[in-house]
Amino acid sequence: MKLITALIAVFCLAGCASKKPIIDKKGVDMVAYEQDLHECQSYAAEVDKTGKVAGGAAAGAVVGGAIGAVFNGSRGASRGAGAGAIGGAAKGAASGEREQAQVVKNCLRGRGYRVLN
């Protein structure tokens, strides 16, 4: 139960991390930019962050369990799997966030904006 709660917390925090890209605003119609940004963010929402979190958790659990088993048998395997799952989920969430940010930036560049970050 603790693992599930931790995974949900990691996933929720990852969702709060998105930020607007920085663009060169010189000569930009900001009303049109906000519309384009919203559309680009809609495309970015198609990135499967849930799959990345789940995949990261599964991979982390396997690695953590194996390391824990080496040091403390089956009890260590259980604890290691839990810790690995949390770390893997966080890594998967971060990966999903980076991919979403890149989709937004690519979309804006494709629409002619100069993205600075």
How would a crystallographer describe the biggest sheet? none
Spans of 5+ residues with little confidence (pLDDT < 50)?
none
Give the fraction of residues assigned to helices. Answer: over 70%
Number of strands: 0
Structural classification: mainly alpha
Round the Cα radius of gyration to an integer and report it.
Answer: 19 Å
Organism: Simiduia curdlanivorans
Protein name: Glycine zipper family protein
How would you describe the overall organization of this protein?
The longest helix has 62 residues, at 49-110. The model has no long low-confidence stretch (mean pLDDT 79). The protein has one domain (2-11, 28-110). It has helices at 2-15, 30-44, 49-110. 78% of the residues lie in helices and 0% in strands.
Give a quick set of tags describing it.
78% helix, mainly alpha
Short description:
The chain is an all-alpha fold. The protein is built from three helices and no strands.
Helices, strands, pairings?
Elements: H1 2-15, H2 30-44, H3 49-110
Helix pairs in contact: 1-3, 2-3
Protein name: Glycine zipper family protein
Organism: Simiduia curdlanivorans
